[in-house]
N-acetyltransferase
Amino acid sequence: MEQKIVIQKVNQLDTASLMLLVGESSYEGFRHVKRLVNDYEDGANKFDEPGEALFIAYQHDNIVGVCGLNRDPYSNNKDVGRARRLYVSPRARRSGIARMLMDSVVAEATKHYKMLVLKTHNPIADAFYRSIGFSVDCDSENNSHFLRLERHTPSDVFTS
């Protein structure tokens, strides 16, 4: 039986619903999902400013992944967004969920930004981001990868 995956943009996050992901990510030695929950709970980052979004991946009504989009806090350029806190549960990996989450982030980012950046030190994540079109950014201490975004304006669309 095929396992249906749904990516949902959420406006309100019940942080308790992410506790399984927090536990799994912590067990793997990652702190970023716990940081997402802590920042959301204390109001430091609710992914609710203009140009921001939070996406949750569901598989059979279970949360199996998360990824957020913020305006890049490390840039003075308002045209730069930052992909943040991507995580997919080990039990759901290798099924395209990370790509689906990033596709959602990129689609949303394209509406607001000219460039999307992120930072990772994980070699597996590096290979993943390269595989979906990101370039390595060797010139920045705040970013490891970037993706130039194409905005489509009404004049870009041709009708026959």
The mean pLDDT is 90. Helices lie at 19-27, 32-42, 97-110, 123-131. The radius of gyration is 16 Å. The chain has one domain: 5-152.
